[in-house]
Amino acid sequence: MIRFRNSLRVAVLGMVMFHAVAAHAAEVSGAGSTFVYPLLLKWAATYYVKTGQQVSYQPTGSGNGVRQIKAARVTFGASDMPLKPDELRAAGLVQFPLVIGGVVPVVNLPGITPGQIRLSGPLLADIFLGKVVNWNDPAIAAINPGIRFPDRKIVVVHRGDSSGTTFNWVSYLSKTSSAWNESVGTGTTVKWPTGVGATGNDGIATYIRNVEGAIGYVELTYALQRNLSYAAVQNRSGTYVQPSRESFSAAASAADWSQRPDFYQIVTDAPGANAWPIAGVVFVILPRAARDAASAKAALAFFKWALNEGQADAAAEHYVALPAALVKQIEAYWSENIK
């Protein structure tokens, strides 16, 4: 674990920092969500080429990102769990959605290909509760006819850090399993009944790839980049849905942002036959009145570019861009709430 954390620090320093910026450019720094890291990395690189503006981002987990922005150590925080309006006001912060993606269960089972197996919310909850402990359990076989599972112990892998990806994962489990809701509940951190912890989406992806019999959860891009096998998951309508930009978009289309103060909304377990049930929204958190006005202005310019011109990058990284009407609503929110 120590070796992994050291490697992650090296990766962050080597991949995220963009140097040799114009002398007049304000410094823009961010921290938080690992869920959105692949896209923010790509956006920052593209934006730097276009404008010479440096945007540095540390994928430290949503909980850490919230702590960093509250302490004014970064220009912006990013979290997959929205803050409630009262908490935002108390801390002098604002938030807005940036992009939509999906959390997927990933497994390491020899011979199992991406999307081949099916899992439901109650079954996933029982696995992460430690009630279903072997891959040849009848409950798994019952919804996967024709697939022969090995007589192998299930190794549960979960986040060990404060994580918005975890928040969306356990939100889905809580909405579909009363046993999970009553015994574990939701949050960026929970008291896990079983399993081993890893840091960041990348940490879970690495563990899954290296340990046969393992199951965990990551944002889809991490699964695709590392060629991990993911599962189709049962949604509210009873349909087993494959994770894709289309199913994420179907989940997002059920959301109505117009009456949501500070855009507070959770989109897991969305209605719709084609909706992915573990969709997540990434939120950017900024101060209402920043100490460094130049950096705050530069950050807003970056996000305005990302929301209006960064759509191709979002699609390439398997995220869903926000609808144009919502982008206009966000820009009006900036004018009304950020000094």
TrEMBL record:
Q: Which UniProt keywords apply?
A: Phosphate transport, Signal, Transport
Q: Any idea what job this protein has?
A: Part of the ABC transporter complex PstSACB involved in phosphate import.
Describe its assembly: The complex is composed of two ATP-binding proteins (PstB), two transmembrane proteins (PstC and PstA) and a solute-binding protein (PstS).
Family per record: Belongs to the PstS family.
Residue ranges spanning the membrane: these are none
Q: Which residues form the PBP domain?
A: 22-307
Give the signal peptide, or none: 1-25
Tell me which species this is from: Caballeronia glathei
Is Transcription regulation included in the keywords of this UniProt record?
no
Molecular function (Gene Ontology), one example: phosphate ion binding
Q: Which Pfam families match?
A: PBP_like_2 (PF12849)
Protein name listed in UniProt: Phosphate-binding protein PstS
Gene Ontology CC terms, in alphabetical order: ATP-binding cassette (ABC) transporter complex
